[in-house]
Amino acid sequence: MIVEYIRYTIAGAKSRAFEAAYTRARESLDASDHCLGYELTRSVEEPTSYTLRIEWESLAGHEQGFRGSDEFRQFLPHIRPYIGDIQEMRHYEVVFAGDAEGRAQRAR
Using CA atoms, how far apart are residues 76 and 38, in angstroms rounded to an integer? Predict the structure, then answer.
């Protein structure tokens, strides 16, 4: 699995339209066999700062599979107006992860 992080800076006036665009665009992520999950978050401390986290089954699945698909062609028009607001877009490998269940087991 590969995790893609896209960090945006969205001016306050554009934030509603940005969130609405991703609400529509997520249908394409849901339809993709290459996308395992995603979340869009907004900073509490800096409300103009958003991070989109997308889990892809592989880097090739994202770059060749999704980007070469009908789903991507439907996705892109929704987010195109915000491409210039991207501060970072990178793929990461998960080194380790945890959850509440794991913490509870370690506490025993």
Answer: 16
What are the tokens at 17? Answer: 């339209």
Architecture of domain 2-96: 2-Layer Sandwich (3.30)
Tens digits of per-residue pLDDT, 9-20?
999 899 999 999
User: pTM of the full predicted structure?
Assistant: 0.89
